[in-house]
Each structure stands twice: as C-alpha cells, then as structure tokens.
Amino acid sequence: MNSRFVETFVGFFMLLGVLALLVLALQVSGLSTELTGQNGYKVTAAFDNIGDLKVRAPVTIGGVRVGQVSSISLDPISFKANVTILLDSNQNKIPSDSSASIYTAGLLGANYISLTPGFDNDFLHNGSVISQTHPAIVLENLIGQLMFKLGGGDNKKADTTEASKQ
Amino acid sequence: MHLIQRLGQLGLKLCGDFGRATLFLFATLFRLPRPVKSFPLLIQELYSVGVLSLIIIIVSGLFIGMVVGLQGYNTLNKFSAAAQLGQLVALSVTRELGPVVTGLLFAGRAGSALTAEIGLMKATDQLSAMEMMGVDPLWRVISPRFWAGFISMPILSAIFSAVAIYGGYLVGVKWLGLDNGAFWGNMQSSVDFYNDVVNGLIKSVVFGFVVTWISVFQGYDTVPTAEGISRATTRTVVYSSLAILGLDFVLTATMLGGW
C-alpha cells in the first residue's frame, strides 16, 4: 500500500481524536466557561444553612446566570457557611445591598443561589460581602414543621374515629 | 481421583498461561527503542488497527447516542424533566458507554484481526523465518501492533463519545424539539472535565492495553494449525470482552470516590 496514503489517513485519524477530545472538553464539560470565568470578581456571603449547594453551582439574578459558586468553607467561630461567589466581570452594576438566597431548581433539582438586587448606589466589587442572606429551605425541616402543626389534627381524627365506633 | 488430577492440570495451565503472557508483555515493552526503524511500522499498524476501525466506531456511536436520547427522552418526559436529557446522554456516554462499547467493538474488529494475523504468521512459519534471518519477531511484528492498539483505543473512545453526544443532540433537539440552550447548558453544568471525561479516557487507555495484550499474546501463543488459529481468535474476543466488563466495574468502583 502507498505509504503516503497511509500516513495521511493516520494523520487525519490523530486529528479527529484531538478534535473529539476538544469537543468533549469545551462543548460537553464546559471547560471553557471554567477557564474564561476566572476574570470575574469574587464576593462572599455567609449562610446559616447551604443545604445541598455545590461548588460550580450557578448564581442567577432573575433566572439569568451571572456567575458561579467558587468555594464553600465553614467559619470556625460563627459556624456559618462561607460561600465565595465568582461573578462575571461584565456584571459590575449589582447594588451592594443585594440579598442572596439559596433555592432549589424544581422540586428535586440542584441548589443554586439567586441574588435579589437592592437599591444602593454603591456596587458590589472584588472582596465585598453580601450581608443579607436567606438559608436554603430543607425539605425535611419543612415536613417536620408540618407534622408538628398537624399534631393537633391527628388527635381530632382519632377522636372522630372513636366517636364513629360508638 | 481423575477429576482432581484434571483440576490440577487446569490450574497449572492457567498459571503457566498467565506467566507466559506476563513474560511476553515484558519482552515486548522493555527493549531498546529503535525509533527511526520502527516508526513506519507503527504508522502502518495504526492505519490497519485505528483508521480502519473508525467507520464502525462512528456509526455505532451515532446510533447508540440516538437510542439513549430517545429512551431517555421518553423516560424523563414522564417526570417532565426532559430538559435534563443532555446531562443524561453526556454522563452515560462519557463515563460508561463510550469506553466500554468502544472496547468491545475494538476487541471484535481489531483484536480478532491481530490474533488471526499473528497466528497465521506463526502457522506458516513466518515468525521462525524472521528469527532465522536475525530479525526479532517481537520487535518487527508484535511491538508495533501492541503500541498501535494502545494508542488508537483512547482516540477511538473520544471519537465515539463525541459522536454519540451529537447523536443524542440530533434526536433530542432536532427531532423531538428540546431547547438547544437547555440541552447544552444542563450538560455543561453537570459534566465535569476531570471526573467524567478524563476518567472515561483513563478507562479506555486501560481497556486498550488489556485488549491488545490479550490479542497479540493469543496470536503469538496459538497452536500453529487452522483449528488453533480459529480457537485463538475466539478466545481473544471472549477474554477481551470479559476483561473489559470486569475491569470496568473495578475501575468505576475505584473512581467513584471522586464523583
């Protein structure tokens, strides 16, 4: 077989492999947003409870993605969760009295941070702290509270069943 | 008593096979490199092992991606979570289906061909003739085939994964009308490059190593008759498939900590 023909095809094969890896890296795993996202600015927020929030979770304003969670750590004194948020550098007009809340996407989806803009004329900048935060709503706690509230209702139900027996 | 003797025979044969395969592997790997002379041989083998397997890999990747997309859409739609289809397709393909199915196809397409080729060389005394001429058959025949398989397998696996994800995209977005942005966005937010893509590639490297090792050893170790070659080829496919599926579990279990 002609060796130039073979070499060309092997070259194409190698090229195709590199191309496929690039597609997997950039298009599928979103490595590009991770790499280019570094030129944003970082703000921190302390939450009582972050629920199931993970690093790289989206940060949104009104549902539009403006950044991502870059790190999560525990404050050793106040035992609050310190969340560092990396905001895109073109989102530089976010008022400094904005509040941050942790929501769940859908009933069973992943957690994300939603920023509610305030009315201050100062803007968030690198190193600033979001003081107003709302912790994640943990479903188990909600159910627990509901059960506690319904406790009286259970007794009543038992009464009525006994009454119906008589 | 006879039965116990047979069992012992089998055990000794198994140990002997493993020992010879390992010695053979060391003899193939640890030798003085001769880059100038062996590079054209490697290119030739990359063509017959890698490039010629490309068509089957691309076609099956496309169809597997499309099937996963279709099945996933129907199931996810019951929970009105069809927007997560991109995530489902990408994770299942990069983590499991890509390396495993590529490995199985590679064993069937390239591994059996390697075994048959080397086995026939042995049966027709070509390997002995090379030794007579002072050419080491391990260097001239085995080594380029081994390295070609080892190199092409991760490349084929990456191509398979990329094509399969586009197959899922074709079904989900182009045919069933999912939102394009949601498809890729959910995929990108859930697939991690190191934990998913790189671990999948590590798997495919391991599978490539094991499959080519089994196929060249079975070819080299074959009984030099027509029946022996057919048995060796069958053994290559069976052992490779079992090794891939077994190793896949072990690798997944060890990598799971990072997920």
Structure description:
- The complex is a heterodimer of chains A (166) and B (259).
- Chain A folds into two domains: 1-36; 40-143, no CATH class.
- Chain A is 36% helix and 28% strand.
- Chain A contains three helices and eight strands.
- Chain A has helices at residues 3-28, 31-36, 139-165; strands spanning 41-47, 58-61, 64-74, 81-87, 99-104, 111-116, 129-130, 132-134.
- An eight-stranded mixed sheet of chain A has the order 7-1-4-3-2-6-5-8, with no helix packed on it.
- The longest helix of chain A has 27 residues, at 139-165.
- The N and C termini of chain A lie far apart (98 Å).
- With 259 residues, chain B is mainly alpha-helical.
- The relative contact order of chain B is 0.16.
- Chain B starts with a helix and ends with a helix.
- Chain B has helices at 2-29, 35-49, 54-78, 85-123, 126-132, 137-175, 180-190, 193-220, 226-255.
- Chain B has nine helices and no strands.
- Chain B has one domain.
- The mean pLDDT of chain B is 89.
- The A-B interface holds A 1, 3, 6-7, 9-10, 12-14, 16-17, 19-21, 23-25, 27-31, 33-34, 56, 58, 106 and B 40, 43-44, 46-47, 50-51, 54, 81, 90, 94, 152, 154-156, 158-159, 161-163, 165, 184, 187-189, 191-193, 196-197, 201.
Please name the defining characteristics of this protein:
heterodimer, A: 166 residues, alpha/beta, 2 domains, eight-stranded mixed sheet, 8 strands, B: 259 residues, mainly alpha, 86% helix, elongated
**Rg of chain B:** 21 Å
What's the helix count of chain B?
9
- Biggest sheet: strand arrangement of chain A: 7-1-4-3-2-6-5-8
Strand percent estimate of chain B: under 5%
The shape of chain B, in one word, is elongated
Structural class designation of chain B: mainly alpha
Order of helices and strands of chain B: HHHHHHHHH
Number of domains of chain A: 2
Secondary-structure-based class of chain A equals alpha/beta
Q: Oligomeric status of the shown chains?
A: heterodimer
H/E series of chain A: HHEEEEEEEEH
